[in-house]
Amino acid sequence: MNLRQLRYVVATADHGTMTSAAQALYVAQPALSRAVRELERELGVELFARSGRGVVLTAVGEQVVRQARIALEAVEAIEALAVTGGDGRAAELRVATTPALEAELTGWLIPRFARERLAARIRVVRCPGREAVVAALRAGRADLALTDLPVPGDLAAHPVDHREVVLVSPPGLKLREPLPPAALDGMRLVLPARGGPRRAELDAVLARAGASPVPAVESDDRETWLDRVRDGTGCLLWYRNQLEDTHGLVVRSFTPPLSRMVGLVHPYRRLSPAARDFLTFAKDAARERRGGDGRVREHT
After folding, report:
1. 3-state SS class at 240
2. CA 156 to CA 20: how far, in whole Å?
3. Helix (H, G, I), strand (E, B) or coil at 100
4. In a shared domain, residues 35 and 69
5. How confident is the model at residue 91, as a pLDDT?
6. Which of 74, 191, 280, 296 has CA 20 to 30 A from 243's CA?
């Protein structure tokens, strides 16, 4: 018997189906079912009985779940002592990310979390790319990570932001709608400055699309990007939800869509209370940031 089995049994009792329990715990449903069956064999009792599409506790199952809750509450209390170091001071929560996404953490998410959770201490683990982020999580050097999705299947992912990449072009330019990514090959584009995180983001998108455009302008001055499109210098490749005034210009989608999904990621293991709190907070903050019209609001 182990704590993982007890958590799975309690979650199944709470959610009524093993599928729902697995989703709530961010584990694969077959793994949860197997762990519950192993516990039943070990104890020599049946904990759940079929009821329609779900399951219900047997009489002995109710007793087991009652005691399991007591055991898990004791474990939670011990974990809480570890999080505060036993002296009331918050333990360190380590969040890994890449240079392109670090501003998402340090610019608005972490400061807001720290204001609302005064005891929180967060350290950003800087990684050169997504592969290094994955390595940091697997090695235990980080508790959570903010990174581009998808990630390998041994990591749980929680999407927090979906960004559609679109092409902004002058009205007289004859292009298909929607546009195949191959049309970007050789196209003159207004791009962020080479070597910066914004350029790294778009270079990754272009690499996935297999396209090699021609840089017409390379600048991090976002205020001038649309002006360069209007004067015919080149087209702009950017995120739809971060475009402001495109009056008089044409905004085209791609087929297949070009997009970037960003999420919080962690290994399939029990998170510390601080990590769980940050994960819940970040998802709520991301929904609020998108707002009712889906546009990302800038936070300072």
Report:
1. helix
2. 16
3. coil
4. yes
5. 61
6. 280
